[in-house]
Each structure stands twice: as C-alpha cells, then as structure tokens.
Write a structure and sequence with these properties.
alpha/beta; Rossmann fold; 7-stranded mixed sheet
Length: 222
C-alpha cells in the first residue's frame, strides 16, 4: 500500500461517481493559482460532506475554515431551500478567492463568509443568539479545535452533526508523546468529545489523494 495506489483508487472513484464540475474545478484551479495551501478536501470527501448534510436534512450549516471555498460549495449545494452556509475564514485574501469561487458557482445568496479569527466569529454568533446549526464542519487550525468544539456546542441543537477534519495526522494522533501542537490539538478535541455525555461519536481513517488522515463525526444528543 502506497500513496500512488491511494491516488489511483481516489481517481477511479472520482471518475465513477463524480462527473466533471466546472464550478468545483474552477475553485481548485483558482486556489492553486493564488498560492493557497492545498488543504482542501478531496473530491470524494467533498461529496461525502454533501451526502452527510443531505442525509441530515440540513438547512443551516456552519463551516470553520473556508480556504478557497471548495468544501463550502459542496456544503452549500446540500442545504434545503431557504437554507444557508455560514463559513469562517481568518485570511482576507483567502476569503476574497472563496467569494469569487462561490459567486461563480451561483451560491452567493446562500453563503455568508465572515472574515476574522474563527473563535471571535463563533463567540459573536453565540452572543447574537443565531439559530442553531444542523451541521458543523470544523476544518481550520488544529490547535484551536478544542475551543471550536466548545463554541460549536453552544451553536448546536439535539441532532446537530459535528464533523472534524484531519484528525488522524498520519497516525500521530495515537502518539501521546508527539509534541506537534496540531496533533495535541486534535487529541484534546477527541478527548473532549469522548468525555462529553451530550455527544455520540466515532472516527474514520481515510487514505487517498490527501494522504493518510480521517474524520471525527459526532452527533449532539441533548
């Protein structure tokens, strides 16, 4: 098993299940041309997010970490009529690129990009008392994952699904001695989920074009 094989399998599934899509292709190309880091989800993972949101019957989705808007487009296409996606991005340049990509996808009226530190935006959403979200996708700086979880729970309702991306960290998540703050952030995030009686959760390891990683998925019980 190696990266070349994982990429070949991803390519096979993408060709089988995901027809070419001009808006999504443009989002990837524009992000790459602008020098954004290649941290977007893989196409088959984007489709997984869309399916999870559709299964959930999501009308309101919160995304923490917009980057170039690639996963935002997948999520926005899943919301019910009159639904919305609120997405948080700290980097104004990334937000501008995401805005253009989302506009090109015809989703500008559905997506609200809030620029600033995600933790500040989350606390402001809590402060103004926004309606709870049906799906929350956490895909930003990993050391802050515990804080994002804490605020996300305030923006949830019974039944809300919370998805944390990049939790495997090439297997280092199992290494308690790892000093990488990203790994420690993910470990603390997972430990908080496991200890919270309000949450029922699991994690899924993945391999593919994005390497060896995975998702944590939790459902708010009460």
């Amino acid at each position: 098993m190696n990266q070349e094989l994982w990429m070949a399998v991803d390519k096979y599934f993408s060709q089988a299940f995901l027809p070419s899509d001009a808006a999504l292709d443009h989002a990837l190309q524009a992000s790459q041309a602008a020098g954004l880091p290649p941290h977007h989800v893989a196409p088959n993972q984007g489709k997984l997010l869309q399916l999870l949101a559709q299964i959930q019957g999501a009308k309101r989705i919160l995304e923490i970490g917009t980057l170039g808007g690639y996963s935002t487009i997948w999520l926005a296409r899943s919301v019910l009529p009159n639904g919305c996606v609120v997405t948080l991005e700290v980097n104004p340049q990334y937000a501008d690129i995401a805005t253009d990509n989302i506009d090109r996808a015809g989703l500008a009226e559905i997506v609200d990009i809030k620029v600033g530190k995600a933790i500040d935006s989350l606390r402001q959403l809590v402060k103004v008392g926004v309606e709870p979200f049906d799906v929350i996708f956490i895909d930003a700086d990993k050391p802050s994952n515990p804080d994002y979880l804490h605020e996300s729970l305030k923006l949830s309702r019974p039944g809300t699904v919370i998805i944390g991306d990049n939790v495997v960290r090439e297997g280092e998540v199992a290494n308690a001695a790892c000093a990488d703050p990203k790994v420690q952030g993910v470990r603390h995030f997972c430990e908080l989920i496991a200890l919270d009686p309000r949450l029922s959760a699991t994690a899924i390891q993945t391999v593919g074009s994005k390497g060896y990683d995975g998702f944590a998925i939790a459902r708010v019980l009460y």
